[in-house]
């Protein structure tokens, strides 16, 4: 290989069509004719019994072809499977009760969306309102309204996980610290909302086009709900998805609902979610109440931690929850050496909208708490916050490292990354600046946050939610795995096409794949055509397929590399045969197979393709005709959770070290970011430009949750942030102008290219680093941040109250 | 989120528009820039039987100077105001306030008449109208009348305009030569409605100081801070007087709490922004 | 149902729709120009931004009938003779897009911004593009792209 494309900021092949308005998003190109449109009738109560429906006026409205209600859903579909044993029945629409404002109760199908909305207003639903509860702690009190009568409690699941000997760690500790944190409910709100087109074929196959991002475990889940054999449900995903960030994982209940509506309508049905619906009832992260304890020695060495979590999943627990608790099981301890951990994780249902993966999934919560405790430890011991972390970091010689919770950290050099961040931030200078600012009475703070960045979820992690005794039963089927597939073929003219179904949502997969294939086959990226469109009928896929959990950079690229290498090996064997030499005497070099050393005929990919397709007789005996290769890459370190609740919940683990300096305005309590340094170790970086884009994007998602965004409800469960005027997505003026980004590269030994994932990145660390910075800024007032978002009004009140008591 | 059905009219004269309003007996809404109304239509929070679109009435968009006043037709686009040399010269406070109104694409369509008639308590234009002691002209089937801001703004999103009246013109006294001005605003994000805004103008005539102050977002309607103006007119424009005026401003307002800010925080911000606005206005003022 | 006759990207187009049909829906459905995107339908996200008589405006806040007689430019109209507009080139060069959904609105907003202010500072660019929400890029690549485009569009002295 002479030209190396991996590591270059190759311009994206996707851009031409996206810049010229020729994208192929779900609402752009009707795949079939006669498409009708759906409007969803939604509950305006947070909690109510459904007494009855009257759809006569709706059915008679102009252009209407079908109306279905929760009655149809209850009769004709099953509830969704979910990874807890609690008998919560979650259907794709409300059947007996509504449990959050916005829950679907009926669907109207009409000629167009305008008419469908007109008719939706004519659907009459009779409710018997019930008291609501929205706080996870209140929901567990004895007199709390209970959402699921058959369950009898709002506790959807509870696990106590004990690793090592935390009792002893706390007994032997020289210092014990405690804190209570609250993490808010927010979601990434991609600018493109959910979109679904469903059509039933005459042979009983239901084809659904949607901007679903995976994991494709939701495919069999949905098939079961609809009473379909899996091979009778076809999911097709368009080439372009307008952002997802985890949110479009949870589109699957709507797929079932719209498919059912289409069945009744007898015509293809499209539903494009509108923004009000998206804010009301799509998906978000959980809000959480967390109690944290740290046991440490006086020199700052952490001996153990206790986590007690109450995660609020909303009105129903739905797959893949309780990933909100267990997605980071393998990296619960983060980058630190401590061995003793006690996790008490409760998943609670309240009258809020439902949750699911959201960029950073469970790690934003985890690190907000852990990094907040590390700062408190530093303060208590009179140590510098960087120093306290340094003393606890895993050392490079410990890798690959098995965490006490079953995680397998493949590679890393955490001290080097921390040192780099501190160096770039000019940390000592910042502290001097702080001293000066404090003398002037200004509130200047410095925050640090470190995180292990897990990518490529092992599907097995969800089973951590189940009791080990349950998992030990013979009828229980263990779960594990993280795989992806790629096919590469060469056509008779020597053009190379790579075919995948990774459901990209803006991450530039086509470009990255072209870079990898170009390197492997001695071509340029322009020589490689990449088709990345998922279709469960035509692509090689598995339940873990999709783009989520930052997996493409790790498992997707690995499948591509392996497929390219398979193809290359075949090309080498074929060329050797044509040259009448043993394969060991030839090599693939500069875009052709050539003899090793010395001269002789060389065969380029084009030469070989021509011969292979036009003259199959020229192939060696036993070689399959055609020039293509498929590879499915799977991580062997993705194992099922063991009897001790240990699981390697992800497959490759990166690292993030961030330093941020802020000033809190004395008059308005607004926060100004003065410096923000972010060092990432994501192994081999394939396209630095794309990587940088992911970091900037991830950081702003984290900042949004930390300062601006919250899905709010009043005490009666009424939704308060149903428009973009109230749910505040940061604009360019709120975004940090410059992030000083640097990389440390610890290639993964587990992937052919050494790459890990980078998609979530700073969304996990920014809430922690900015909360720590603001805490540091307000430390002279004795204030520490325990809750987000930090709005100017909230901070101003905190400050005023603190001053009143001094 | 699609609008409910409505009948649609796009008259080319004001008289036709008024006749339509009369015909629909209060169940028609005027469509000006649409930047406030169309979202309400899309959410189906507004469901008028008819829309009377004013955008084809060319005679409603103009900027003229008349007798020491600047008169703006109600359908004058905010964008036009932003780049108008007349406004820059005669009403620099209005120009500065315009930059806080949403974003340029909003201002391409939004109008001064629409903004004032919509009467959002956080909007910038009503505060400027109040601070500069402007007035509006309204025409209905019974004829024309002028209204001062105090008589126009009733409460949140409510003016005293009748259902069959059209706000046709906004009149603002030209600011004297050498006047100083400032519009200070605090918002969660750039382009959002103000959490609180303060419009300030001041000028000197020898030793005499004239000050004009009004708020946005600090009450259900724009608040004229006359008591603060009196402090400055009595004690001058030194730092102490400005600080005293700012303190008084905090005391004068009765803001509400909402999702974005508490009443106490708003009250505090009024003081902060009044001080900032007065200091800046003082800087730009010349004797 | 009223007729709507307008000019889109320099070509005369027409359609017929209810008065309540939004301009963005008319462009996408009746004229099959799907480059303009729907993101919020209440005028905040900016994805639907087009040029109306040369000025950026939200097409979700206009009725199609209001565009009768108007000149509209959508993202499909930025290319000239099969070549990307310098602004589009700059977005590609500087990674000003990831998923591409806000991009049409961002391009037309930036175009209007640069016509009104051909030499903006970074702050002015940020302020100008704060009219459009992006969830992918953190705006970094977009700001770089618009600043580069400003230079590319400035006529040589």
Please characterize this protein's 3D structure.
The complex is a heterotrimer of chains A (806), B (287) and C (157). By secondary structure, chain A is of the alpha+beta class. Chain A is built from 21 helices and 28 strands. In chain A, the strands form seven sheets. A seven-stranded mixed beta sheet of chain A has the order 3-5-1-12-9-10-11. In chain A, strands 7-15-14-13-8 form a five-stranded mixed beta sheet. The model of chain A has no long low-confidence stretch (mean pLDDT 95). Chain B has 287 residues and is of the alpha+beta class. Chain B is built from twelve helices and 14 strands. Chain B has helices at residues 14-23, 37-42, 78-83, 85-90, 92-98, 104-109, 112-118, 124-131, 149-152, 226-235, 239-252, 263-284, and strands at residues 7-9, 28-31, 50-53, 63-66, 69-73, 135-140, 143-147, 153-155, 158-159, 166-173, 180-186, 196-205, 208-216, 223-224. Chain B has a five-stranded antiparallel beta sheet. A four-stranded antiparallel beta sheet of chain B has the order 11-12-13-14. In chain B, helix 10 packs antiparallel against helix 11 and helix 11 packs antiparallel against helix 12 (263-284). Chain C contains five helices and five strands. In chain C, strand 3 and strand 4 (55-58) form a beta hairpin. The longest helix of chain C has 14 residues, at 103-116. Chain C is globular and about 45 Å long. Chains A and C meet through helix 1 and helix 19 of A and helix 2, helix 3, helix 4 and helix 5 of C.
Short summary:
The complex is a heterotrimer of chains A (806), B (287) and C (157). Chain B is an alpha+beta fold.
Summary tags:
heterotrimer, B: 287 residues, alpha+beta, 4-stranded antiparallel β-sheet, 14 strands, globular, C: 157 residues, 5 strands
Task: Return the string of H and E elements of chain C.
Answer: EEHEEEHHHH
Largest sheet of chain A: 7 strands, mixed
Largest interface: A-C, 57 and 56 residues
Structural class of chain A: alpha+beta
Shape of chain C: globular
Mean pLDDT of chain A: 95
- Shape, per Cα inertia axes of chain A: globular
Strands of chain A, count: 28
Look at the structure and give the mean pLDDT of chain C.
97
Low-confidence stretches of chain A: none
Distance between the ends of chain C: 52 Å
What kind of oligomer do you see? heterotrimer
Terminal Cα span of chain A: 69 Å
